[in-house]
Amino acid sequence: MTSIEDLHLDHLIGMEVGTSTILKELARGGSAAVFIAFQRTLKRQIAIKILPKSLLTPETAERFQVEAESAAILSHPNIIPIYEVGETADFLFIAMQLIQGRSLSYHIKAAKKHVLPSRRYIPVETTVTIMTQVLDGLDYAHHQDIIHRDIKPGNILMESRSKRPIILDFGIARVSRGLEHETSAIQGTPMYMPPEQIRNETADRRTDIYASGMMLFEMLVSDLPLPRVDPVSLLALKLEQKDRLFKTKPSEMNPRVYPDMDRIVFKAVSFDPGDRFASCAEFRQAQLDYQNRHPGQR
In Å, how far are 164, 214, 279, 288 from 294, measured between CA atoms? Predict the structure, then answer.
């Protein structure tokens, strides 16, 4: 089966797409490729994400359209700004702000490789700073009735200059007031996927809270204490083990984490959505309170 990695896209360089001219390829992933482009109208460099129609199925086309429509109405410092949406004879495209930086997953992996064991984690203070900003962005999106549904470190871009986290890829987001149009396919990333999403039940803001809790846990310990199994087996384990999935606490893996952070993490990743934080604002405040109780923590 053809994938985005198999396609030769050099012919797109120099092509005019909407109000922009494609300059060079930046990255590929999933069913899309991202290019740097020059927006002629405003004379600035931007990013253009394209989905070749040769890879389209009804589901991927819908997901791409939903990403554009969802993200385009959002205006928040921690959410990628969308400039333009359209299509050509060969592909669909989204024009967006060009962010200089690397993904949060890159920074987690880089920390894990540090020569000093004590430096193999992102500092707790930095983790809380990043997470509170991400949760602020998600809380804003939730108030616009939009659930992301695929929060993970790979979908958080850390801006190089400001160190600001930017939420990317609303590609499987759904406007929550339009849930009658949900598809039957399971969508998301297994490690960060909550039980209700695995069971293909209705997703709400607590779906993003679970994924954010998993991301917080990973940032605190660098390597989540999960069995080394394939993605399908991991999904089954989550449903089987419920709140017994994790045998080790963050404070037992990272000596710089206090036990009250354990309670925050495990509340966020509770099996039952009703046991999680009621909102991203509440989850965010719990981390700010932790930070206030432990000032100057590194």
Answer: 23, 22, 23, 10
Residues 37, 294: Cα–Cα separation, whole Å = 45
CB-based contacts of 59, cutoff 8 Å, min separation 6: 183, 185
Residue with tokens 């959410």: 79
Number of other CB atoms surrounding residue 107 within 10 Å = 19
Query: Residue 227: is its pLDDT beyond 60?
Result: yes
pLDDT (mean) for 21-48: 93
- CA 17 and chain centroid, separation: 27
pLDDT tens across 73-129, in order? 899 999 999 998 888 888 999 999 999 999 999 999 999 988 888 788 999 999 999
CA distances, 248 to each of 221, 251, 266 (Å) = 11, 8, 11
Q: How far is CA 268 from the centre of its chain?
A: 16
| Residue type for position 207 | T
| Catalytic residue status for 275 | no
- Which alpha helices (DSSP H) does the chain contain, by range? 58-72, 104-112, 124-143, 195-198, 205-221, 231-241, 250-253, 259-268, 280-293
CB 277 within 8 A of CB 209: yes
Does the pTM exceed 0.85?
A: yes
Q: What is the pLDDT of residues 236-256, one digit of tens each?
A: 999 999 999 999 999 999 999
Give the span between the Cα atoms of 110 and 126, in whole angstroms: 15
Sign, CA dihedral 84-29-126-141, equals: positive
Structure tokens at 172: 């499987």
The catalytic position among 139, 150, 169, 262 is 150
Identify the band that residue 181 occupies on the pLDDT scale cut at 50, 70 and 90.
very low
- CA of 239: how far to CAs of 147, 204, 232, 272, 291, in Å? 22, 18, 11, 11, 32
In degrees rounded to 5, what are phi and psi of residue 8? Answer: -90, 115
165-167 and 156-159 as β-strands: parallel, antiparallel, unpaired? antiparallel
Q: Which two tokens stand for residue 45?
A: 């460099």
